[in-house]
């Protein structure tokens, strides 16, 4: 879903950081990693820090130049912590997500990250349409490389609505009860409360309205409703004995 975003790392010095980037990407369901002249890659430290995201690492493509790495990209964003003397149009990570998360899959977008010690050079930023910024403490604005990738990928993930999709699809999650099921439950509840002598006919309306409010707040799922119906059946049977 986010595969049109290509994470491009320029001349990364520490292989561990490359691994940590792969992990950060996989956490956010991203897998398109491009490396421009990494100092040491492949490397055991990269695999160790990827901790389970070695598939992203294995699929990473290595390029000799930034130009080659972004050749098929239509939009190029250069992530930078520093204020630049020349003013580039800049976007925050969130604005980037808002603008392009829904872009067509063939609309490749490069997210370019710089070196750990010196970031991106001006001639590399010349290849970028936008400066990509992570808003943070202006007196201490340089994040660790993998942390910067993490924040950007997180914004893209949230922007794509996937956190909602993954919640609905959670294992064991039951669908919410329908209005019809809830009405049947309220009738059952009212009947049971009358049977056990709890409900006074003249007070029943206002109590039922309050009970509806309680259940509306909690939004029962079908499994939870089954449990409550089971309790009602049990107390009716018990009462009848
Ligand atoms: N010391 C470097 C920063 C290196 S951090 C410098 O002076 O530029 C490594 C990379 O992480 C940066 O090149 C940039 O791509 C990214 N990064 C770190 N902090 C960032 C921030 N606040 N906003 C955007 N990108 C950031």
Pick out the low-confidence regions. Answer: none
Strand numbers in spatial order across the main sheet: 3-2-1-6-4-7-5
CATH C-level label of the largest domain? Alpha Beta
Bound molecules: S-adenosyl-L-homocysteine
* Helix/sheet category: alpha/beta
Task: Please tell me the total number of domains.
Answer: 2
The rounded distance between the terminal residues' Cα atoms is: 59 Å
Count, helices: 11
Radius of gyration: 27 Å
Coarse morphology: elongated
| Mean pLDDT score | 91
What is the CATH superfamily of the largest domain? SPOUT methyltransferase, trefoil knot domain
Question: Remind me, CATH topology of the largest domain?
Answer: Alpha/beta knot
Strand content: 5-15%
Sheet with the most strands, sense and barrel status: 7 strands, parallel
Please trace the helix and strand order, writing H or E for each element.
Answer: EHEHHEHEEHEHEHHHHH
Report the CATH architecture of the largest domain. 3-Layer(aba) Sandwich
Number of separate strands: 7
Helix content class: 40-55%
């Amino acid at each position: 879903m986010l595969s049109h975003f290509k994470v491009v790392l320029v001349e990364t010095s520490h292989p561990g950081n490359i691994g940590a980037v792969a992990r950060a990407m996989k956490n956010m369901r991203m897998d398109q990693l491009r490396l421009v002249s990494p100092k040491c890659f492949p490397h055991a430290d990269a695999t160790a820090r990827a901790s389970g995201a070695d598939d992203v690492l294995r699929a990473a493509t290595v390029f000799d130049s930034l130009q080659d790495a972004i050749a098929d990209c239509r939009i190029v964003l250069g992530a930078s912590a520093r204020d630049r003397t020349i003013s580039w149009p800049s976007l925050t990570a969130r604005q980037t997500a808002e603008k392009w998360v829904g872009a067509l899959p063939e609309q490749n977008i490069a997210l370019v990250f710089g070196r750990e010690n010196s970031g991106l050079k001006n001639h590399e930023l010349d290849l970028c349409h936008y400066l990509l910024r992570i808003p943070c403490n202006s007196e201490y604005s340089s994040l660790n490389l993998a942390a910067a990738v993490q924040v950007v990928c997180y914004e893209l993930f949230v922007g794509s609505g996937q956190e909602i999709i993954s919640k609905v699809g959670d294992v064991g999650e039951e669908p919410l009860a329908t209005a019809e099921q809830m009405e049947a439950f309220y009738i059952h509840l009212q009947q049971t409360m009358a049977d056990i002598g709890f409900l006074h006919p003249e007070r029943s309306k206002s109590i039922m309205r309050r009970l509806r409010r309680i259940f509306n707040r909690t939004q029962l799922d079908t499994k939870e409703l089954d449990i409550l119906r089971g309790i009602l059946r049990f107390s009716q049977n018990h009462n009848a004995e």
